[in-house]
Write a structure and sequence with these properties.
Two copies of one chain form a homodimer.
Chain A lengths: L1 E6 L2 E6 L7 H9 L5 E10 L14 E12 L16 H6 L1 H4 L3 H24 L3 E2 L17 E3 L5 E4 L5 H9 L4 E9 L11 E10 L3 H15 L13 E3 H8 L12 E3 L10 H8 L3 E8 L2 H4 L2 H15 L4 E5 L5 E2 L8 H11 L6 E8 H21 L12 E5 L4 E4 L2 E7 L26 E6 L2 E8 L4 H11 L8 H7 L6 E7 H9 L25 E2 L2 H4 L4 E3 L4 H10 L4 H6 L7
Parallel strand pairs in A: 2-4, 5-8, 10-16
Antiparallel strand pairs in A: 1-2, 3-4, 6-7, 8-9, 9-21, 11-12, 12-15, 13-14, 13-15, 16-19, 17-18, 19-20, 20-21
Helix pairs in contact in A: 4-6, 7-12, 10-12, 13-14
């Protein structure tokens, strides 16, 4: 008779002797329900020859039990604690304390702790950073994404839970804490969005007397130092790409550079085309013809794949995409074939290095739109090909990339003649573009940089404005924001603020990629569901109106029709989308 | 011509050459206002013989400047950045980013970062603890102290900002994360209380399969390991004292053991007294006569000191205290002298080891009340004596003490026939007292322990209840709490929860004692004022009613009379006071 005992270090096999003297031990252990907590003592012995289990770290030994004590019994489980047992996420979240016992969750949370510890060693012990805690009961930021409110005991006065310690980290630079970091809890109320959490964690860093390269090498060293030792080491420096290049080549500001399938501008091939459709497209401002070669696409992609690709293009981009199949007979099988003459076909074959069995996706339109479309389809095709067994992206490969030279401003949604910050209003303009601020601000590039890993934005930062006058000009004149909400920061810059810059890494997303977890909820001990609910404790919850009184608030219950409307109308604001770099997602 | 340059490492003297070639450098540096940011290059040279400054780490060298650049200019300061310049705290908080430049604030924040880093090394690297982040958007706890509310987008539903990760740390133990720690942000809405912050930080620890001694040695090792190397090393183990002993000897549950002046029970001396006053006191339940000898009190304390001591006793304890002055003529000069016969006087002299020039404080009454009174007066006298130049408490001395065996329950305020938890409802009863739970619960001691440093509670913890049935009995039957708010925790205990226990150290208070700062606001980068306000950014702040709409709340503006009443009526609840261990403070 044997049983398997588990603790946080792993499993061990326990043998119950069959003699009479062990009767009470046997009774205790046999009657203890699965997942009960027992304390045993006994002798560690070798397993009998032939019964060793080489797959188990403790597979060569077993424990011959002498005493046993039932410390706590376990009632009937809602699911078995085995990784191969499938359970719905709702059930896992409801019984999170049981789900945490799984090998995978134990691994994820322990690795997260270890990796953050290595980051702290790197920053604090090796690079002289100071870990400073900043408040989370703060002031709302002007024009920012939605912030949770916290009613105070002063009637009509509220704190806000900040989305990041942005203002505090800059104020620390003014205060002479020249190298700041914090593993910072941040809050963002985005309503119901998959794979987002109302509270999340970022590795938050700010330095004085630093430039873009300085921050970048620091982060490269940080990731290399803290990377799990059982993975391929991180190779530094990371490659870098401008925003313009990323958009033109990958159709996104967060390219997945683990595979090629780049977007190619083939406008020149069609300069003298007789096709009116293409001529029309090329005549428009920033009109282009773009293509992307999907290797072996003609071989692997099915009719329904192509249909879904074309549907995605029209649904989300209101744009046509034309597939071209390069069949063995070297004929181009395509609705586009009729307006591609032989000379153009040869030129395209040369530029795009197409081969038999490839598929080309072709589109015409405004540069950014055409790129975004192909960028989206690039990921879609990769996904489809992988579904057909083609190896495109090595799961053990970690492909880091810096994306730089973002625009400083974007046209404001709803009023495109006004500007809004592409990232946030404290980002410094690119030194070469400073003069354009007063003549053509929409052309100014910023000193913002994003860190991308395998097609996911895992960090972003910038060199900040340290000149109060310039900051005031951008806030009031260009962005037309209410600068009074930031008067303390503007004033601080006036008292000898050093040049400074920083970055924030999204820890949840990073851990999700490092562990290969399917969702960020798998690297967080007690995550909220899609709807921002804690399913274990039923949160958020009603509060007796007595408890609202000290905060001078009352609930405004929506009418039935309002409640219905509310459900339908929630779409994330433009700024939210920009901040989250989901610009090109559909 | 010279100037002094400051960076985060310290100061250095810069010499400006007087020759023509340095004219532009000279202009830049001479015109830069105080506290401006400059970048200089130059040669490091020895100071001329006789001009070295041995008090300055860089006092042997200076920099002969070659180039200079003004990176940012500083406008007129509201106060000079010099530690000796006195400024009001309101001004310091308003310009916190300037105040942070002071030597003292730089030291406090950097030491805090270093000490926390050492604690992390100890827990994470040396003792296998896992750093787990727990949510701060959570559920309100039943009957707890006041918690901030966070309105959600679901009408009438709220999150609460938890006062500690108590429930999560226990759930992690159920989840098999057997050694948890977190530098946890906690929230407590205590309205306006001096030296408290609405958000604060605790070193939060929980372990499975541990007893009280296990947690205590862990914490002793933790403090020894992380203690600043320029202080006297921490001596372990720390002494331990029961709650009953602490109350009887020091009149408080957080004795300052840096000095003696203990409370002595002199009831036996007066068993056969003829004084009716004393007889009355001794006849009452738990009636006692107590005394405390203030060394050299007769020499140093003035008439007005004694008056203030007696006033404190009557004002806050509604109790008489009688001073006895031991003058050189060995006569007892006291209002108590008339009822102390010679034999009693000799006995008292022997028990209390009184000497000439001492003062004895004498009181009679119920044990706890008499002790609390003398405990308060003990600190008062120490303060007064130190004000007269007597050295009682060595400022470099750190006197740690464990206080153990607290009562599990206290009589409920307002309804003393019911019980409430002395600490929190998850505290396990003392193993020797388990049987009393069902017969005389008010007599049950708990497995709670407090860590006291120099008379301040810097930590507290307990072995927890891991049995769902016992937890349910205590919550529902004994405490009559709404257990549905904790159903998830009760359920979790039923699924094989291991025996577990933990502790939390108050980091702000600890750093305050380590740095010798006068207030916890001096070890926090951006603290709130007494009233919970951020004076720099003017928080909490009004919010446009439009921004309240998504959260389905509106402000209930108080009428003028309500507003007036509110100001007067706020007194912290009994539970608050118990939780904060200010039981005996007046």
């Amino acid at each position: 008779m044997f049983l398997v005992l588990r603790d946080c270090h792993g499993l061990v096999q326990v043998i119950i002797p069959q003699d009479e003297s062990a009767a009470s031990v046997k009774k205790i252990l046999c009657e203890a329900p699965l997942e009960s907590v027992v304390r045993i003592s006994g002798a560690v012995i070798s397993r009998p020859p032939g019964q060793e289990n080489p797959k188990m770290p403790t597979g060569e030994i077993e424990i011959k039990v002498k005493t046993a004590e039932l410390l706590n019994s376990c009632k009937k489980l809602p699911f078995e604690i085995k990784d191969f047992v499938k359970k719905t996420e709702a059930l896992r979240l409801q019984y999170r304390y049981l789900d945490l016992r799984s090998v995978q969750m134990q691994y994820n949370l322990r690795l997260r702790s270890q990796m953050v510890m290595k980051m702290r060693e790197y920053l604090c012990n090796l690079h002289g950073f100071v870990d400073v805690e900043t408040p989370t009961l703060f002031k709302r930021t002007p024009g920012g994404a939605r912030e949770f409110l916290v009613p105070s005991r002063e009637p009509g006065k509220f704190y806000s839970l900040p989305q990041s310690p942005q203002q505090f980290k800059q104020l620390l630079m003014v205060g002479g804490l020249d190298r700041y970091f914090q593993v910072a809890r941040c809050y963002r109320d985005e309503g119901s969005r998959p794979d987002r959490q109302p509270e999340f964690t970022q590795i938050d860093i700010e330095m004085s007397f630093v430039d873009q390269t300085g921050i970048q090498s620091l982060i490269e060293g940080l990731l290399q130092y803290s990377w799990p030792s059982d993975r391929d080491p991180v190779v530094i420096p990371f490659p870098s790409m401008t925003f313009a290049e990323a958009l033109a080549t990958y159709g996104t500001d967060k390219p997945d550079t683990r595979f090629g399938m780049k977007i190619i501008d083939i406008s020149d091939v069609f300069r003298n085309t007789k096709s009116e459709f293409l001529q029309d497209a090329l005549r428009k401002p920033q009109g282009t013809v773009k293509a992307m070669c999907v290797r072996e696409g003609a071989k692997y992609l099915k009719r329904k794949d192509i249909e879904s690709i074309r549907k995605c293009a029209t649904d989300h981009f209101n744009q046509e995409v034309l597939p071209v199949f390069l069949k063995a007979n070297s004929n181009w099988n395509s609705p586009a074939a009729k307006f591609i003459v032989e000379e153009q076909r040869l030129e395209l074959t040369r530029i795009m290095e197409t081969r038999e069995e490839d598929m080309v996706l072709l589109t015409a339109g405004e540069h950014k739109k055409a790129c975004s479309l192909l960028g989206k389809l690039r990921l879609e095709c990769a996904h489809l090909l992988e579904g057909r067994g083609v190896v495109l992206r090595d799961p053990t490969c970690f492909s880091f990339l810096w994306v730089v030279d973002f625009p400083l401003f974007l046209p404001k949604e709803g009023n495109p003649r006004e500007l809004e910050s592409a990232h946030h209003p404290f980002t410094a303009p690119h030194p070469s573009d400073g003069h354009l601020l007063y003549t053509a601000p929409e052309k100014v590039r910023s000193q913002h940089y994003d860190l991308v890993l395998n097609g996911n934005e895992i960090g972003g930062g910038s060199i900040r404005i340290h000149d109060a006058e310039l900051q005031g000009y951008i806030l009031s004149t260009l962005l037309k924001e209410d600068a009074t909400l930031l008067s303390h920061l503007l004033q601080a810059l006036d008292y000898g603020a050093p040049p400074h810059g920083g970055i924030a890494l999204g820890l949840d997303r990073l851990m999700c990629l490092v562990t290969g977890a399917p969702s960020i909820r798998d690297v967080i001990a007690f995550p909220k569901s899609f709807q921002g609910r804690d399913l274990m404790s039923n949160v958020p919850d009603s509060v007796p109106s007595e408890e609202l009184k000290p905060y001078h608030i009352q609930v405004s219950w929506p009418t039935d029709s309002e409640a219905e409307k509310r459900k339908e109308s929630f779409t994330p604001s433009r700024k939210l989308r920009v901040l989250s770099s989901v610009l090109h997602q559909c």
